[in-house]
Amino acid sequence: MNRTIVDLLADNAEHARAFAGRFDEVQDGQYPEAVTVCCSDSRVLQDQIFGNETPGRLFTCGNIGNRVVQRTDAREVVSGDVLYPLAHAGTRTAVVVGHTGCGAVTATYDALAGGLAADSEPPGIEHCIDLLAPHIEPGVDLLPEGLDDAEAVNHLVEYNVDRQVDELLGSDDVPDDTDVVGVVYDFQDVYGGERGEVHLINVDGERDPTALRAEHEVVDDRIARLWTY
């Protein structure tokens, strides 16, 4: 047997022993407090970044680039993965989680800048880049001068989070009373806090740090942005 599978099953056995009694209240249904849309990067420990050890608390979606959209034959829509708890489980908080050094944003930036050949990725990855590109492209033209590539990517990580928040706020499928929040998970010492901290950058479309701190004093020390535009 593949050693990785053996190790995963051993770790799962420990998980089952620790969590066996925590499913009693959610065996027959779920009412998550929030839906999180995270990048599926292996360094983004999706539930763990919020200290979650409670089954049923978070409805976690993951994909490269923390996208909230999917493409149908007719048009681009909010993904059913994200909508499900909002439509069927009473969830009224959505959190878009970007992260520093995002590979999907990097690949999209490279494609927009002409550094990535059109056929250089498998079709599935190209599809993901094609979904991100229209949301990120306007941000490339707004980037401050003098940024190196890594800095440009981290600026665009914020820009992408903002655009995904906008998609949720602008969708008729998302209930009007849903709180939509955008954050960035930092493990690269970009924001100056602890590695692994989540930094709040957008609340219901408001992205000005001064306005956010005035409105949300209880978390004012967690509000930080690399740029406003």
Automatic annotation (TrEMBL):
Annotated catalysed reactions: hydrogencarbonate + H(+) = CO2 + H2O
Cofactor note as given: Binds 1 zinc ion per subunit.
InterPro entries cross-referenced by the UniProt entry: Carbonic_anhydrase (IPR001765), Carbonic_anhydrase_sf (IPR036874)
Cofactor requirements of the protein: Zn(2+)
UniProt keyword Flavoprotein, yes or no: no
Domain of life: Archaea
EC number: 4.2.1.1
Molecular function per GO: carbonate dehydratase activity; zinc ion binding
Pfam families per UniProt: Pro_CA (PF00484)
Keywords, alphabetical: Lyase, Metal-binding, Zinc
Binding-site list for Zn(2+): 39, 99, 102
Alphabetical list of PANTHER family matching this protein: CARBONIC ANHYDRASE
Similarity remark: Belongs to the beta-class carbonic anhydrase family.
Protein name stated in the entry: carbonic anhydrase
